[in-house]
Design brief:
With about 325 residues, the protein is an alpha/beta fold. It has one domain: Ribonuclease Z/Hydroxyacylglutathione hydrolase-like (Metallo-beta-lactamase, Chain A, 4-Layer Sandwich). The protein has helices spanning about 1-20, 60-70, 85-90, 90-95, 115-125, 210-215, 240-245, 265-270; strands spanning about 25, 35-40, 45-50, 75-80, 100-105, 130-135, 145-155, 155, 165-170, 190-195, 200, 220, 225-230, 250-255, 275-280, 300, 310-315, 320-325, 330-335. The chain starts with a helix and ends with a strand.
Length: about 325
């Protein structure tokens, strides 16, 4: 009988330990670029973009600090959404601080000119030190413990609905198109990350018309729990036809003090049906009091800042908590039924 009790306790402890594992996401402040560190319950890491170059290795240092906080000693998968300085510029400085095992991208940079060529050359040099994964819509990035679906890449969009998607999107009837964008932005790799019932979308800097094509006339994504603002919350992206159809519970806006966070885009996100909170990496100077969240939900309230991050932790039930590293405020969100 005693042995049975001991065995029962061991099983319960094992279950509790497994249930305590979370998917953790660090939204690193790279001041208007992107660097999003995802750590799966298995401990494997996916970093989306590397922030800017220069600034005395500011962004590489901030990514490395987040990795240390997360107990990450290497980047298992580095996904580059597209080839702009605020997304891949920090590659050389980051590689000097953390080993990078796998490089994920949409293929060669389509932009030309000296600056674009230098950016590509720096990336190619570092990429040669690891394995390369060229992704297209419909592919998955094999991060153990997570499902990472590629829904956009190199200007192409998924034609197959994800689970929960495929329904008609009535918001498309009133959506107006912009002039087509031909830059690297429109070729961004976009992903949906799933852990159990939880889903988060990150579309890089995918631009307006591409987002409409992804969600119109049918919503191929379904709904998400967390929406990372596309293009840092700039009004070149984020039509209501995608933001409202995704029906996020929480928005994370990865803006800088003076980059992204357009008041009109902020208002679209804030008005999304069912939204509980909009968190921001920075107070947006252009937004003023009326187009910024309360200070509680902003990681960096001063333009000259210490680069505080926002952290998202998701448990096996789908419940998740957002923590502001500046003021230690955190809020837990119950999973939707």
């Amino acid at each position: 009988m005693r042995n049975m009790r001991v065995l029962g306790c061991m099983i319960l402890c094992t279950i509790a330990a497994f249930g305590a594992k979370t998917m953790d996401v660090y939204f690193v402040d790279v001041e208007g670029g992107q660097a999003t560190l995802v750590v799966s319950p298995s401990g494997k890491s996916l970093l989306v973009d590397t922030g800017w170059p220069g600034f005395e290795e500011r962004d590489a240092k901030r990514i490395a600090a987040a990795a240390k906080q997360a107990g990450v000693k290497q980047i298992d998968y580095l996904m580059i959404t597209h080839f702009h300085r605020d997304h891949v510029g920090g590659i050389t400085q980051l590689a000097a601080k953390l080993p990078i095992r796998n490089f994920v991208d949409h293929g060669p940079n389509v932009e030309t000119g000296k600056a674009a060529e230098e950016l590509s050359a720096a990336y190619e040099k570092v990429k040669a030190t690891g394995q390369h994964l060229l992704v297209k819509p419909g592919d998955t990035i094999p991060v153990p413990g997570l499902t990472v679906d590629v829904v956009a890449s190199n200007g192409q969009l998924t034609t197959k609905a994800l689970p929960g998607g495929g329904q008609a999107n009535p918001l498309c009837t009133s959506a107006k198109r912009h002039e087509d964008d031909t830059t690297e932005n429109s070729r961004s790799v976009g992903i949906v990350i799933s852990y159990g019932k939880f889903r988060m979308i990150d579309l890089g800097d995918l631009t307006w018309n591409k987002e409409l094509d992804l969600m119109c006339p049918e919503n191929r994504i379904g709904t998400v729990d967390v929406y990372l603002s596309t293009h840092h919350g700039a009004d070149a992206s984020g039509p209501a036809a995608i933001v409202h159809a995704l029906h996020p519970q929480v928005v994370i806006q990865n803006n800088g003090a003076r980059k992204g966070a357009s008041p009109s885009a902020w208002q679209v996100m804030k008005a999304s049906p069912g939204l509980e909170d909009l968190w921001q990496l920075h107070y947006a100077v252009a937004g003023g009091k009326d187009n910024n969240s309360a200070d509680t939900f902003i990681a960096n309230t001063d333009e000259r800042c210490e680069g505080k991050w926002l952290k998202l932790s998701v448990d096996a039930t789908g419940a998740f908590t957002v923590t502001n590293s500046r003021n230690k405020y955190q809020k837990t969100y119950k999973p939707r039924s």
